[in-house]
Amino acid sequence: MDALTLPPPDRTSAAPTTGRPTREEAEAAIRTLIGWAGDDVGREGLLDTPARVVRAYEEFFGGYRLDPVEILNRTFDETEGYDEMVLLKDIRFESHCEHHMVPIIGRAHVAYLPRSRVVGISKLARVVDAYARRLQIQEKLTAQIAQAIDTALQPLGVAVVIEAQHQCMTTRGVHKPGVSMVTSRMLGAFRTDPVARQEFMLAIGGRAGAAAA
Ligand SMILES: [Zn+2]
């Protein structure tokens, strides 16, 4: 439906792709990683682990099977003249960084200024999840959420701010717990009109300094 909503096709290898690996292949890969970590894949406590991990991956990465623009496409055209900001804040999400495949846990604040179409507010949370449940970097996650809302609703403006902790920073590497990363994407009026942007920043609770566009 929309190139943005599909996982990018693999154009890096000339050989035809063999498609999605089977569940058995995925479980075998987990056994390899357990052995690489130094444990015995045959020990009793680990026997069912590959199957469990693969099931967990279906949950962690279920976003690839969702089309965020499609989620937003059922809109309510009757806004009754409502033309003020619609904001859903503190949407908790769990994602995984594409560099280390460890969790990114954070909150998204999503707002738009309706032109004529509004959407059920739970749909905004579902769009956040549809992109979060993929391998991500926070900057791309932020931009994709904003772009999907812009494409589907064609509003006067979209604002997305994400604050998140990256476990690749807290549990490995520099080991810096408590550090949050803040990213923002402003489109339309939120980009061009300082008053609109300030209203949004105040509404999400004074994160304006870190998230100024
Ligand atoms: Zn990472």
Write the layout of secondary structure elements.
Layout: H1 23-37, H2 49-60, H3 68-72, E1 75-76, E2 86-97, E3 103-113, E4 118-119, H4 121-132, E5 135-136, H5 138-153, E6 157-166, H6 167-170, E7 181-188, H7 189-192, H8 194-203, H9 208-211
Parallel strand pairs: 2-5
Antiparallel strand pairs: 1-4, 2-3, 3-6, 6-7
Describe this structure in words.
Strand 2 (86-97) and strand 3 (103-113) form a beta hairpin. The longest helix is centred in the C-terminal third of the chain and has 16 residues, at 138-153. The protein contains nine helices and seven strands; from the N terminus they run H-H-H-E-E-E-E-H-E-H-E-H-E-H-H-H. Helix 1 (23-37) packs across helix 2 and helix 4 (121-132) packs antiparallel against helix 5 (138-153). Residues 6-15 and 208-213 have low confidence and may be disordered. The chain has helices spanning 23-37, 49-60, 68-72, 121-132, 138-153, 167-170, 189-192, 194-203, 208-211, and strands spanning 75-76, 86-97, 103-113, 118-119, 135-136, 157-166, 181-188. The chain has a five-stranded mixed sheet, sandwiched between helices. Strands 1-4 form a two-stranded antiparallel sheet. With 213 residues, the chain is an alpha+beta fold. The chain has two domains: 23-60, no CATH class; 72-211, GTP Cyclohydrolase I, domain 2 (2-Layer Sandwich). Zinc ion binds next to loops. Keywords: GTP-binding, Hydrolase, Metal-binding, Nucleotide-binding, One-carbon metabolism, Zinc. It holds the Pfam family GTP_cyclohydroI. This is GTP cyclohydrolase 1. Its EC number is 3.5.4.16. Pathway: Cofactor biosynthesis; 7,8-dihydroneopterin triphosphate biosynthesis; 7,8-dihydroneopterin triphosphate from GTP: step 1/1.
